Structures are given as structure tokens and as C-alpha cells.
Model the fold of this input.
Amino acid sequence: MNFMNYRQFFPLLSRTVNGKPLVYLDNAATAQKPQAVIDTVNELHAALNGNIHRGVHYMAEQCTMRYEAARESVRKLLNAEKTHEAIFTAGTTAGINLVAFSFGEKYVKAGDEIVVTEMEHHSNIVPWQLLCERKGATLKVLPFDNEGNLRMDLLPSLLNEKTKIVAVTQVSNVLGTVNPVEKIIKIAHAKNIPVLVDGAQGAQHGGIDVQKTGCDFYVFSGHKMYGPTGVGVLYAKEKFLEEMPPYQGGGDMVKTVSFAKTTYADLPYKFEAGTANYIGAIGLGSAIEFLNNGQKTEEESYSLCSCSPLSALQAHEHALLQRATQELQAIDGLKIYGNAAQKSSLISFTIDGIHHLDVAQILDKLGIAVRTGTLCAEPVMQHFGLTGMVRASFAFYNTLEEVDKLVEGVKKVKAMM
Ligand code: PMP
Done:
């Protein structure tokens, strides 16, 4: 499969930055959008915009139909049993906050415990801390070792009758570690503890089968999987969604409203208060369609389609990771953080004696976009005694030549500093 073909579908990739062809290696922060997604969003804004679930006019009905079709695409992507187990949110952060609040209201009381891991993004720490503060519960933390693997040997000792939920990232956005979520779910379920999996860095690199893994809650963001910003998904088992109280109140989430008594809408609408980001959700549906089937070219043939595009894309991403790892670790003074056997396509590193911000700024001058700073994971920085790192993260549209440009760029930074 020629991965150069993919680039043609992403218009932004052909731009220049600082007079140089863009080398976009900040995909873990946000991924670029294929023309199919851009066209969908434009078409809706330009020609089909009507608020969903309310109007009976043509445009409202079309948007409603396409919004619900996008929900079905999400169901298929996650292999959820029921379509109404997929709730549209504003993104991963919004999904975790929804669960932390609503699950917390229903099931968590003073003295209970919540388990997270040391490698979580702030989005999967702070909502649980807020819950603990509200309820008088305690946050317990499963550490990772210096290679970036979770200390699975310690997990059983953290789980007891007070533990109400385990929240773990599928893939670390700093270390790249692909966590053994299926195993974690098995261990937690043996003690009747549900598990939330943060799929922000996992959904676009293989995703999850929620039925096979038994995952109770799964969250991800549209913008990291080639869809629009401001939309995401919370998958939750029906049982929890039925039992949990609504998170936000407003239009669309009610059956009847009176000052005496208000009743709530059926799933999934109970958790979708107010005007949903339906254009974003339909755009996300279009991104899922693109990942599954590719995009029609002018000749109307599917040029990205193959038997199993997602796994082919992952194999290419792995090749990029391997090349980058080999080349970068050969640079004197460069240290890579996260060497797990199962690793996603991102590399975080520091260079002795050079501030991470300087590295990223010089790379930017060369047209190479990477991420720098604490990567919204301060506990990971604290683990290694650092104030920040540089992160290069790859998508399937990146090329080996771009990896080489990154390596050359880092060598230039070293020479300059
Ligand atoms: N969790 C992880 C692992 C992430 O990488 C991110 C985004 N960097 C988030 C959660 C939050 O995602 P969002 O900002 O799209 O809500």
C-alpha cells in the first residue's frame, strides 16, 4: 500500500510553515482532517443546517437522520451492543467529567476509593479529584515503572470493597504505552469494579471492542481521529446509563417538564442536554467512514480502501515509530521516555542541556510541528523529575522521509545549541 496516496486527502498537509514544507508531527494533540470531513461540515453549514430532534422541516429531519446515522457508525466502531449506549459529548474531557459527576452521584460516598494510574492525562485525574473532594472519597494511584509499564503486580492490592471505579488510559499520551486494558478489566470485574478507559489516544490507533473487552465506559475525542473539534463520544453500558442521574439539564434531555415534576428522556438523550454539536457529530461519522472505506477520488474509485485499512494503517505507524526510535536514540544526549513493548506511534524525549521549548521552537523554524511542555501529564513529568519533554507523534499519513527530517532537525538543534 502506498501511504503517499493518503496525503492527497488531507489538504493541510501540503502547506508550508516558515517557508518549509510542513512536517506535522503533533497528531496526538490533534489530527488533520481529510477532505471528506471538511466537505461534510461545509455542506451542512452551507446547505443543510437545521436543529435536530425538534423541527419537522426538511433540513431538521435530514440533520437528525444523519446525526443518528453517525451514532450508529460509532456503535459499529466500538462494537457496542446498543446504539443508545453511545452518547455524543464535546470530547474526552467532557465524557470523563460526565461519568465522574453522574456515576459519582449515584455510587460514590465518603470513604470510597477511585483508582487511576500515574500515567493519566490531567483529564483523567482532575474530574476524579473533584469527585473525591465532593464526596469525601480517596484517589488511589497505580504507578508505572521506568520503562513506562503499569505496575500490574500492584493492581490487586489497590482494589477492595471500597473501590468504586478504575479509570485508565488505553494509550499514554506521553509514554506511548499501550496498556493491557483487557487484563485490567478482568481483574477489576473479578471484584465487581467497573472500568473507564480513556481512549483519546487509542480510538484512532485500533480502538476497542467494548463487548469483547467488557469495557464499562469508553471515551474519545473526534478531533484526534480525523474528525472535527468539539465533539466526542462516551460509550457506557446501558445498565449504568439507566441508573446514573442526568449530568446537565436543559432541552432535549427531558420527556415532560412541569414545576411539579420533570421526567427525563430515554437514552441516549438523557445525557445530551441542549443543542448537540450535530454538525461535529456528523463530521465524526464521516471521519469513521473515511477510516473504514477511504475516500472517493474524482474517478469515483475508492483509493484508500483495502480489506482491513485500520490494521494496515497501524502497521505503517509502527514502521514510523521504529525508524524514529532507532534514529533518535542514536543521538548523543537524547533520552526517550517510554520503552514499553506495546507502544503507540509517539516518542517523547529530552536532550541533555537543551530546554525542551528551544528544541520545539527551532524545529518549528524548520517547518516541523511537535508538542512540548508537560503534555498535560504533570505526574509523568514528576516521575522523571522533569519540567517538560518534546513529543513527536505520528499518524498514518506521515512518511519515513518526514521521520528523517525530524532526526536531521534534532541534529541541527544540537549543533546550534
Ligand atoms: N486523555 C488523553 C490520553 C489525551 O491525550 C487527551 C488529549 N491530549 C485527553 C484525554 C483530553 O482530550 P480532549 O482535550 O480532546 O478532551
Observations:
- The domain at 4-30+308-416 is CATH 3.90.1150.10 (Aspartate Aminotransferase, domain 1).
- The first strand starts at residue 16 and ends at 17.
- The chain has a mean pLDDT of 95.
- Residues 91-93, 121, 123-124, 169, 173, 198, 200-201, 221, 376 surround 4'-deoxy-4'-aminopyridoxal-5'-phosphate (CB under 6 Å).
